[in-house]
Amino acid sequence: MTLPALFSPLTIRGVTLKNRLAISPMCQYSAVDGVVQDWHFVHLGRFALGGAALVFVEATGVTPEGRISHGDVGLWNDAQEAALARVAAFLKAQGSVPGIQIAHAGRKASSHRPFEGVGPVTPDTQIGDEAPWRTVAPSAIPFAEGWPTPRELTLAEIAEVRLAFAASARRALRAGFDVVEVHAAHGYLLSEFLSPISNHRTDAYGGDFEGRIRLLLEIVEDVRAIWPDDKPLFVRLSAVDGTAGGWSLDDSVALAQRLKALGVDVIDSSSAGLTPSLETINKPGPGYQVPYAEAIRATGIATQAVGLIVTPELAESVIAEGKADLVALGRPALFDPNWPLHARRALDPEADPAEGWPIQAGYAVARMRAVVK
To answer: Are 216 and 205 in contact (CB under 8 A)?
Structure first.
């Protein structure tokens, strides 16, 4: 049988991925002072053992105030860098490429962990000594009813945000990561700057399309200058806001062309998050966000498709039909950390049953397969 397209290698700059399957950044809300714990080591390590080519650490705050919650991973100090280096080294040793997403949560920061509550932390709802902090945004507009009004960033503070992203990129490089992704999706800070719904500024960082994309372009230039030429740079975008009158797919297509010119290699194509609205989003279902990746890819930049890509057959069609270059798994990988290995078997039943498995397990799996068909 011909090698499934999903399991063909992909080389981006000087990094070769053994297949087209990535693990999306998935917040675990389990860090302590921004430092990854044993939970993160096992959580991320199992995806490398499960056969994914690229494994991303969760959205990683570039400042303490840039975290979504008190439990988020950060990368602004030496202790955080050292702990992440252990994770990156293990992923690499298992044949996966270690990636990290650097982020600032903007007006959606200072939130509860989703398994402990819903919405923003307040003095009345805080748990223990985890007090809320004042959030920031391009404009003083709250995320939704019941959320605090963020403070509008000054020009000097915008410059500090740029420095924070650059500093985290330097730390990620020292920690051994081979892919860095700038998070500009899901209604977090850089996404807030992009959208006319959340960005009402009248200075150089607001107003028209050029003003609203300025900060992201500057951060990408900063990170690309730090990130070696042989290592890929990804950007995650919400292809559409979800709210009428907001950021559109046409905007994403135009921005993707600008990002490619600055040295971005892959657009990670997601959607929504700027407001609670989903009115302009494709109806959720298997592969519902793939058309966004396909439209952006038509500009000539590589894309990573996400969004309920739940079966091997669907993932294979995305790659084989040229709709995206990579498929990222989130919830399906949580349900089955060995999803890539099981997908290979499903798409190529005649393949060596031990192929792709860690040496410590492959021989035993092959013996089981010989008995259990």
So the answer is: no
For the chain, the domains span 5-371
Q: Examine the residue annotation and report whether 29 is marked as an active-site residue of this protein.
A: no
Q: Tokens 């349900």 sit at which residue?
A: 335
Catalytic residue among 188, 288, 292, 363: 188
Pairing relationship of beta strands 136-137 and 151-152 according to DSSP bridges: parallel
Backbone angles phi, psi at 357, to 5 degrees: -75, 150
pTM: 0.96
Closest CA to 216 of 86, 98, 83, 104: 104
Q: Does the domain at residues 5-371 carry the CATH identifier 3.90.1150.10?
A: no
Rounded distance, CA 23 to CA 97, Å? 10
Which has the closest alpha carbon to 198: 292, 295, 276, 101? 276
pLDDT in tens, 12-27: 999 999 999 999 999 9
d(CA 5, CA 2): 9
